[in-house]
Amino acid sequence: MDDAQLLRYSRHILLDELGVEGQEKLLASHALVIGAGGLGSPVALYLGSAGVGRITVVDHDVVDETNLQRQIAHNLARVGQPKAESVREAITALNPDVQVTPLVRRADDALLDALVPTADVVLDCTDHFAIRHAINRACVRHGRPLVSGAAIRMDGQLSVYDTRDPARPCYACVFPEDAGLEEALCATMGVFAPLVGILGSMQAAEALKLLTGLGSRLSGQLLMLDGRDMAFQQIELPRNPHCAVCASRP
Fold this sequence. Notes:
The protein is built from ten helices and eight strands. The chain has helices spanning 3-8, 10-13, 19-27, 40-50, 83-94, 109-115, 129-142, 171-174, 186-189, 193-211; strands at 30-34, 54-58, 99-103, 121-124, 146-152, 155-161, 221-226, 231-236. It is globular. It starts with a helix and ends in a 14-residue tail after the last strand. Helix 4 (40-50) links the parallel strand 1 and strand 2 (54-58).
């Protein structure tokens, strides 16, 4: 690190858990953020401000005025602009040293198979079950840790799916693709604005811990947040030995 970086990241460097070594790990890391909306906004901003060296942001949508109630990486001047490009501008304004690659594309199997192996951590900030399952499959195939967040109405949840540990479940162990779960979208059900900020910030925190070698105690755990009472509940997630996605992994 040069003198400017030592100053910029001094509050991280002062932490016994991080120090110079941890900050250097962040600077050398690559995070893949899928979704640049309510969750992806705080995720991308905190990863960028913390000095994650490379951030790839995938989102096929454009900024809309209805997004601005909660998607804090965007602003009124960027309405109509692709969200991935808007996030790049927001990160660059905070930390121009970070290399941000915006991809204005829907995350499909082919794209994920190209991107996931290049990343040190993957963050699922989407709100579509099909894309969530595609992300999970790619992370299992390529052995990458997945930090998954979700928020709707006044409720949120967060977990880390790290199948590098054979005892840990994948996303499909907990939410099977054939379970017939109903899609819940903010556009039809609403979402409390600060809730996505809380969950997204927590996703960023778990990703930073994984990148610096601190690990995540949320691997194999589901943390649920009731935003009405600001109450957290944590439950253990067992691995499904018959999971269609991860049962055959080594």
